[in-house]
Amino acid sequence: MMAQMLKNKVYGWLDQRFALGTMQELAGKKTVPVHRHSIWYYMGGIAVMFLIIQVLTGGLLMLYYVPEISAAHASIVTINSQVDFGWFVRSMHSWGANLMILALFVHLFTTYFLKAYRPPREITWLTGLGLLVVVFGFGFTGYLLPWDEVAFFATKVGLDIASQVPFVGETIATILRGGADVSQATLSRFFVIHVFLLPLALVALMGVHMLMVQLHGMSRPDSVKDQAVREEKFFPTFVLKDLMVWLLLFNLLAAFVSFYPWGLGPEADPFAAAPAGIKPEWYFLGMFQFLKVLPAYIGPFEGEHVGMALFALIGLAFVVIPFWERGQNPVRKMWAELFGSVILFLFIVFTVWGMLL
Amino acid sequence: MSSDDLAQHDALQADDKLMAQVVSRRTFLKATLGLFAAGWVSMMVYPFFRYLTSSVKLSGAEEVTSVSLGGAETLAPGTGKNFQFGSKPALIVRDTDGTFHAYDAMCTHLGCTVQFKDAKDGIWCACHGGKYDPSTGKNIAGPPPKPLAKLDVAVVEGNIIVSKPGVTLSNKAVES
Q1: CA triple A153-B102-A178, angle to 5 deg
Q2: Within the 20-49 window of chain B, which residues sit less than 8 Å (CB to CB) from chain A?
Q3: Could you tell me where the DSSP H helices lie in chain A?
Q4: Chain B residues closer than 8 Å to A276 by CB
C-alpha cells in the first residue's frame, strides 16, 4: 500500500517534469514489421551495442595509455601485461572495433539491397554513410596509437594517399601529420581526433540518423510491400529481442577476446624498412589489394591515382543512389542492384585475395 | 496590361534606374556588413589554420647534410642496410663489385620505407611490392612511378660517408 503510493508519487513527479505520459504514448505507437527480411532490422542496433563497448573500453584505456612516441608502445605493453585485465579491456576495444565495422558493412549492404535508402529516407542513408566515414576515421587513427611497426607504415601510406587528392590533399595531409613526417605531432593529432573530434561528429550524425528512423519508422522492402504484414510492438517486444541479440553477440565478443587476445607488433622504428608481409586492417584490405595490383601507369595517369579516382566515384555513387533510384523505375532498380552486387563481390574478392597473399 | 498598369510599371522602372545610380542605404549596409563578416571570419580562421599547419620540430631532429656509417668493410658486397639520415630513413647498398649506392629509402609510390632484399629482388618495398634496381635506384617493377632519390657515397679514410647530392665533402662537418 505504502509502496504503491510512493510509486505513484514518484511517477507523478517525473511525469510532470518529463511528460512521461506523452513519451509512453509515442513509444506504444512504435511498431516493427514482421516478415522474412526482419532480421536485418537488428543490424543498426548491433552496431550501437558495439559502439557502447567502444566508448566504455576506450575511456578505460585512456587511464593507462600515454600518447607520446617514446612511451606509447610501452604503455600498451603495460596495459597488456601489468594492468590487471588490461589485456581484456584492450582486446575488447580492438575486437569490438572490428566487429562493429563488420556489423556496419552488413547494415550498409542490407539497407542497400532492401532499398531502404529510398525517399523519404535519403537523410537516414546519407548520415549512415557519414557515420561509416567517421568509423573508418576511428579505425585509421586508433590503429596508430599503439605506435607499433605496422601502425607506423599504415599511417605513412594512408596519409600519402590523402596527400595525392588534387588541390587540397597536401594541406590536409600536412594538417593531419603535423609536418612532413609521421612523428610525435602525428600521434598527438591522431589521439585528439580519436578521442575528441570523431566522438563529437559521431554523436551529431547518430542523433540525426536515429531521429530519422523514429520519424519514418522501419522501411519495408518491395517484396513484402503488398503483403499483409504483422506488426510487433517496439516496446517491449522488439527491444527485448534486441537485447537478446546484444547479449548473444556480447558473449561472442568476450569469447574472441578471451581466446584470441589482441596482439601488439614490435615498436615502430621510423628509420627501419617496412616489415615484410605488412597489411592494413581487413576493412581497408580490399582497397589496398586493388591499389597493389594496379600497374604504375594506366595511360598517362599514375595507377594509384586511377584507383583513388575509382574509389571516389564508387563513394559518390553511394551518395547519389537515393536521388536516382527512387523506386519508380524498374530499369534503374535493376542497375542499382547490379552495381551493389558488383561492388560487394569485388570487395569480398579483393579482401580475400589480400588475406591469402 | 491596362494603361494604369503600364504607367505604374514605368514609374517602377524609373525608380529602379534611380536606385541603380544611387546605391540604397540598405544595399550599402548589407555589402559593408558582408565584407566585415568575411574579414572577421578570415581573421578568426587564419590563426587556427596556421596553428594546425605549423611544422614545429617536436623531437630535436636537425638538418643533416651527411652521415658517417663506419668502416667500409662492415658492409659486405651484395648486401644493404637501412640507416637514419637526419630525420629521414635512408638505404645503402653495396654491389657485388664493391661499389656503394645510397638512396632516400622512401618509396616513390606511397612513402613506405624500402629495403635491400637480395641479389634477385634488389631493392624492395614490403607495402605494395615495388622494386628498384640496386645500382641505379630505377623503378623496375610494381607500382612505383619514379626512381628512388639518390644520395652521394664516398669512402674517406676507409669510412663510408653518405651525403646529400651536391654537398662537397671538404666543407662540411661529418657527423657520426
Answers
A1: 35
A2: none
A3: 2-18, 20-29, 43-61, 72-81, 86-113, 122-144, 149-163, 169-177, 184-192, 198-216, 222-225, 239-259, 282-293, 303-324, 330-356
A4: 126
C-alpha cell at A282: 581487413
**B55:A161 CB<8 A:** no
Q: Which class in CATH covers the domain with range A31-267? A: mainly alpha
Pairwise CB contact (< 8 Å): A157 & B143: no
ipTM computed for the complex: 0.77
A169, with CB counted inside 10 A (0-12, 13-18, 19+), is: middle
The residue extents of the domains of chain B are: 3-53, 66-171
- Summarised one tens digit per residue, pLDDT across range A86-141 is 999 999 999 999 999 999 999 999 999 999 999 999 999 999 999 999 999 999 99
Give A293-344 pLDDT, tens digit per residue. Answer: 888 788 888 888 899 999 999 999 999 999 999 999 999 999 999 999 999 9
Residue B61 has pLDDT above 90, yes or no: no
Residue B6 has pLDDT above 80, yes or no: no
Q: Which fold has domain B66-171?
A: Rieske Iron-sulfur Protein (2.102.10)
Q: Is B78 in the A-facing interface, judged by CB distances under 8 Å?
A: no
Residue A227: Cβ within 10 Å count: 11
Q: Give me A188's grid cell.
A: 598527438
CA separation for the pair B66, B69 (Å, rounded): 10
Cα–Cα distance, B87 to B73 (Å, whole number): 26
B91 vs A: CB within 8 A: yes
User: By the CB < 8 Å criterion, does A300 face chain B?
Assistant: no
Whether B82 contacts chain A with CB within 8 A: yes
